[in-house]
Amino acid sequence: MTAPVSPIPTAPTQQKRARHVPERSCVACRRKRPQGQFVRLVRTDSGWVIAQKGQQGRGAYVCADTPGCWVAKRLGRLCGAQAAHLSSSLQAHHERTSSN
Question: pTM surpassing 0.85?
Fold first, then answer.
């Protein structure tokens, strides 16, 4: 004799899972944050540059809202002699984005 088949229980109000948020760390201060709170730097043939949307390549992240992370001395561990140029590029990028 076979047992009666019971319906599969379904919860009437299933809670949705929290969406995964990628976490990255700043190369200057080593602080971990969600990826959206960083500026992405990409290494190209001409050196390190601020990444455009979707640009591929070796990447690194720097805090977008912390000017202390843009100091050439802190960026030196990432890009060496190009740190001073990258520091000024980050300052200019911040001024452009904050004025919008």
Answer: no
Burial 35-70 (b: 16+ CB within 10 A, else e): eeebbbbbbeeeebbebeeeeeeeebbbbbebeebb
Contacts of 94 (CB under 8 A, 6+ apart): 64, 67, 70
As a residue count, the chain comes to 100
User: For the domain that residue 90 is a member of, what is the CATH number?
Assistant: 3.30.1230.10
What pLDDT score does 16 carry? 84
Q: What is the pLDDT of residue 30?
A: 94
Q: Which structural domain range is residue 92 located in? A: 23-99
